[in-house]
Amino acid sequence: MSGGGRCNFTNLYVEAEHFLSNNPHFCKSALKAYTPEDFISMVEAHGIEYEEKKHHQLFCINSSKDILQMLLTQCSDLGVELRTSVEIQKVLKQAQGSSEQRFELLLDERDQKNISCASLVIATGALSIPTLGGSGYGYELAKELELPLITRQASLVPFMFSDEIKDLCEQLSGLSTPVTISSNNKTFEESMLFTHRGLSGPAVLQISNYWRPGDVIKIDLLPNMNAQEVFIEEKGKQSRLTLKKYLNTFLPKALVLQLESLWWPSHKDHALCEISNSELKAIGANLNQWSLKPSSTEGYRTAEVTLGGVDTDALDSKTMEAKEHPGLFFIGEVVDVTGHLGGYNFQWAWASGYSAGLFA
């Protein structure tokens, strides 16, 4: 699914600033222990072709299936036993004393006998996209063992609207345009996509990490351009262009048509030089700071990741082991570490898994 089916498997520049967590320093040890270069070396060793795209994102040239097959091959070469379609009913922590059989996994009676183990790594993912297997099982297990959890919410997720903006988005569904988007003192410059439910695209997915219900988002439809100044300057040239015709140079025509009805319906046929400075400034302000309040997100159904998770204070940052439960490890998305869009969440999965694997 990631990268349109070509798997955005990592990013060349993975710094802690690209991750969200109650403890922003927690991810540093794992990311340093297993770097993008380490994963790239494995990709190259398996002859998988890849390419770098914008923002240093790496994608398979062919298909994400190449990465899956690589991982399966690695498992086979190392003698890993894979058991699928096995339902775990409960995880029991054994009494103190034995380091060889710390945990027992109680399986559905239709499955094979229960599994006992010295080390147990929880890599169950999170709540996002349940149709692909997302679940809260890892959180349930953490609760049973009294590990603290940070509040979860859908993230890297499209916004929905319930007012007239929804109608506008429906009219423009499928149209994409570059924007700068901001919320809660965080800003991204990416493309934005109109959908029949609201707004999506990289810019929106990125800012959804920082948006909270009730918050406003601000969208600059003309990044790197001060619309107020440009309009006044153009007016000074006695321009006979209408606003629509002038803006068609910078924005998709369909978008300009909708904005015309929204912001300057009484000036549809007026030349720039016929519109007052105050009105031009008001329209320019809207173009550079379009304030919208989403009614909600599309939720876990389409969210690429889940924000929050197992509190990192309960885990060792170098090993991913639960401090109060020797032999129990939590890795990947189930932990309260969430990356930006662009291969960061995959790199966190690889890095946290590697760190746990060294000690499990």
TrEMBL record:
Domain RsdA/BaiN/AoA(So)-like insert: residue ranges: 153-305
Boundaries of every RsdA/BaiN/AoA(So)-like Rossmann fold-like domain copy: 1-357
Names of the cofactor(s): FAD
InterPro entries the record matches: BaiN-like, BaiN-like_dom_sf, FAD/NAD-bd_sf, RsdA/BaiN/AoA(So)-like_dom, RsdA/BaiN/AoA(So)_Rossmann
Pfam families reported in the protein's UniProt record: HI0933_like (PF03486), HI0933_like_1st (PF22780)
Matches recorded under SUPFAM superfamilies: FAD/NAD(P)-binding domain (SSF51905), HI0933 insert domain-like (SSF160996)
Keywords recorded for this protein, A-Z: FAD, Flavoprotein
Lineage top rank: taxon: Bacteria
Protein name: Flavoprotein
Organism expressing this protein natively: SAR86 cluster bacterium BACL1 MAG-120920-bin57
Organism placement in taxonomy: Bacteria, Pseudomonadati, Pseudomonadota, Gammaproteobacteria, SAR86 cluster
